[in-house]
UniProtKB/TrEMBL annotation:
A GO term, aspect molecular function: ATP binding
SUPFAM superfamilies: UBC-like (SSF54495)
EC class: transferase
Domain (UBC core): residue spans on this chain: 3-150
Organism, as annotated: Massariosphaeria phaeospora
Keyword Transferase included in the entry's annotation: yes
Gene3D superfamilies associated with the record: Ubiquitin Conjugating Enzyme
Keywords, comma-separated and alphabetical: ATP-binding, Nucleotide-binding, Transferase, Ubl conjugation pathway
InterPro entries for this protein: Ub_conjugating_enzyme, UBC, UBQ-conjugating_enzyme/RWD
Protein name: E2 ubiquitin-conjugating enzyme
EC number: 2.3.2.23
């Protein structure tokens, strides 16, 4: 077993023994380098009530290089491309550090949903809306969350 595989096993075991509230991650097709994850939308955000699925692909040289994390669920967010799922988050790029773990990444993404960074946006129109017309941004994000990130029964449950 390689160092990368050992590290990934440790991270997976850590997630199982010390789960993160509102987050989960699992191997996809029993492949240690290919994971799926889900994040619950933060309660104090337009994403509340939604479950957002992620794809995580680890490189062979992990943790020296960051994993590729993309949203599989469509989301209305200035830092996430709704078509490709690409995420503009510094810790997954220039600020990556080998001590970061999937637990820290999932927590960062969950916080990122509640607190976008319009200055590091990949969807400038949404960033501008977030800055200038926040109520319209929030209304659209709530709508997209209901359409793409909630089970049909969740939308009508009280």
């Amino acid at each position: 077993m390689s160092r990368t595989q050992r590290r990934l096993r440790q991270e997976l075991n850590h997630l199982r023994s010390d789960p993160i509230d509102g987050c989960s991650a699992h191997l996809k097709d029993n492949d240690i380098f290919n994971w799926t994850a889900s994040i619950q939308g933060p309660h104090v955000s337009p994403f509340a009530g939604g479950t957002f699925n992620l794809n995580i692909q680890y490189p062979q040289d992990y943790p020296l290089s960051p994993p590729t994390v993309t949203f599989a669920t469509k989301i209305y967010h200035p830092n996430i491309d709704s078509d490709s799922g690409f995420i503009s988050l510094n810790i997954l790029g220039p600020d990556w550090c080998p001590v970061l773990t999937i637990s820290k990444i999932l927590l960062s993404l969950q916080a990122f949903l509640a607190d976008p960074d319009p200055h590091n946006a990949i969807v400038p129109e949404i960033a501008l809306e977030y800055q200038i017309r926040r109520s319209i941004y929030e209304r659209t994000a709530v709508d997209w969350t209901a359409r793409f990130a909630m089970e049909w029964t969740d939308r009508f449950a009280e």
